[in-house]
What we know:
binds calcium ion, single chain, four-stranded antiparallel beta sheet, mainly beta, 41% strand
Amino acid sequence: MSNVFKSWLSKAKNPAFVLGAVTLMTLMIPARLAVTGSTASVAAQDEVCLEVLADGVPATSTAQAVATGDFNEDGHMDLAVVAHLPLVPERGLVILQGTGSGEFAPVEYLPVGDHNHGVITADLNQDGHMDVATSTSIRPNPTVETNVEHLFFGDGTGHFPRHDVLSMDVKVGPLDVQAADLNKDGTLDLVLAGAGDEQVGVLLGDGTGAFGPPRFFGGGLLSTRASAIADFNNDGNPDIVVTNEYRRFVTLFLGDGTGQFRPSEKFLAGSGPRSIVAADFDGDGNQDMAATNRTSNDASIMFGDGRGGSSQSQDIRVGRDPRTVVAGDFNNDGRMDIAVTSALFQSVTLLLGDGRRNFSPANFIRVGDAPVRHRRLNPVKGPTDVGDGIVGLAAADIDGDGDLDLAATSTFDGHVYILMNRCQ
Ligand SMILES: [Ca+2]
Ligand SMILES: [Ca+2]
Ligand SMILES: [Ca+2]
Ligand SMILES: [Ca+2]
């Protein structure tokens, strides 16, 4: 039993979490049995050695999403955390400066909307300094402008003196933002999921931080929620896959390399697909994808065939109300793994890959002590069995030891929790 798991058990303070621990124990056993072969290197494959640093770092109320970047260029990872429904929208994005030891302190609060979703970091204006983008979507009776994209341009000292707001003439605004060079002109462009009647928008950048008007496509499937960008058909042109949260599928749009996209395949996922990530999980050179399913409480993993097609999804149970998914090697065995936040299980679920299309059953890592809050008594449109707990997730080498750590946010207590990779 790992030390992390032991400390998790010792922290269990109420019967519900003890029950969770028993579930975890039963799940850990098949995880070990699932490993085939008996060499030492294979035995390390199912080791879970993410250590949750105590208490977490206060970030912002309703901390929704987190992204990493070295904003002040001191060699240590910093964090950008955006609040979902900030008490003070003028301070809804917080920049936390890192020391390289897992400690973070707020250095700047920046103005965003009052219904915010994703946050990303990228050098949008190509000046060598990391920038931050967040998205804000419609909300009844907003106190600040909604349906906009906020861009904050860093100066390399940890501050963001330039703030651009991209307004869109749409009824519903972006629920997610991603950046990539979609038209292969060497500058970053933006993909907005959930925006406009068509529900997917592309904004082409000119490299100065300016972006052209959005081109919308996507077919108007409501609640297109998140996107991932990768070349799924190996033609050298970036493609876009989006989740359709109130449907059971994810939709692939193939790019022609000029910034135009056409709908291609729909792939069946679980119920309520929310977040999606592209990665080559089986190492065959073809992009694969993993999505979280909020209603069926699992993650769907689909292996690409390199021609824009995919295998049937492999669905693996994760913690309840799964939200953000990230891919990376989190146990240092050279094989891609999957990490998922769970808003109703106060955990990060780790699915360890063997590099051959097999993933371990769920390893639950308890994150924080705050209770989860069910929204059943205050239903919102969409799934009702949802809550506020661990939601945002980002992977980066936070302590500079060469492996991937995780940062996870809680909308309930507004903290960001650091999960340090202690694997050898
Ligand atoms: Ca920049
Ligand atoms: Ca392509
Ligand atoms: Ca692959
Ligand atoms: Ca791994």
